[in-house]
Amino acid sequence: MEILTQEPVRWQSASNALLGTFWSCGGNSPTNSTTTAFASPAPADTYWGTFEEVSQYNVSLNYFERLWLAWYTYMNNDVLATGIMSFVMHEVVYFGRALPWIIIDCIPFFNKYKIQAAKIPTAKEQWQCAALVLLSHFTVELPQIWLFHPMAQFFGLETSVPFPSPLKMAYQIAIFFVLEDSWHYWTHRAMHVFPYLYKNIHKIHHHYSAPFGLAAEYASPIEVLVLGLGTVGSPILYCAITKDLHILTMYMWIVARLFQAIDAHSGYEFPWSLHHFLPFWAGADHHDTHHERFIGNYASSFRWWDYVLDTESGPEAAKRRRERKLAKAKKAQ
Q1: What positions does the domain Fatty acid hydroxylase occupy (predicted)?
Q2: DSSP class of residue 104?
Q3: Bridging pattern class, strands 36-37 and 21-22
């Protein structure tokens, strides 16, 4: 009788991070007894074929973790996999978040919420802005994004599964907001304090005195690089110090930062705007005033730097300064 032998299932690595093991950002050895193993099958002909194989042998992972593992396994090239995922995510989030504001600009009902109501961007302005932003994305940001994975590996960011807990990601992202806001305040302020920096770098961003969502990244390549250091550098610095950061947290942070930047440039102030509930949150009214007056309100997400260092802009800030000046004069008498 003929004996049939079954060919053993072949396994191969998709990456060092997805070899079927995961370890801490601090670089613990994969031979450590606490290591958890996950099977990473040889890439199938299609992504969904790979996903089915990953799902079959990694039942302990949730659906999104299996999607993640299947992507890296299918691509079989970490730099390419991370580069494509990062760039697509950035474009989808940026233009996806800007789209509602474009629609709102076309609906007269919302004009009453427009901070500078007489300056509704035209379709031509929106298209011109989108064209320059796209050019910047492909010529300036794409190379940076493509180099992100090697840089992330150098600083020890995890790319493995399972993912960190939502609570852990939340407090890390909160830290990144504070760090980025500080970087943004000082670099942005420097671009206004020094005429050379304003004229040669920052002026292009002030092309629109009444900003709109798409204009969040309407800036010179140098400004994109400099201010982008706060967005990318804050998590990298955190990981370099703590040795504890997952690349998914980085992605969630980038998404949150894009939402913040686009909303701050939206030009709309609603009764339900976040700063009404979190008084220290900057929001659109804070940044819109900066674009209108070309001075003050240098921070990105929070109001405390401008408040403490007396760089707030707008009628209310001017009124408070006059009151303080009068009070000081009375004391001196």
Answers
A1: 174-311
A2: H
A3: antiparallel
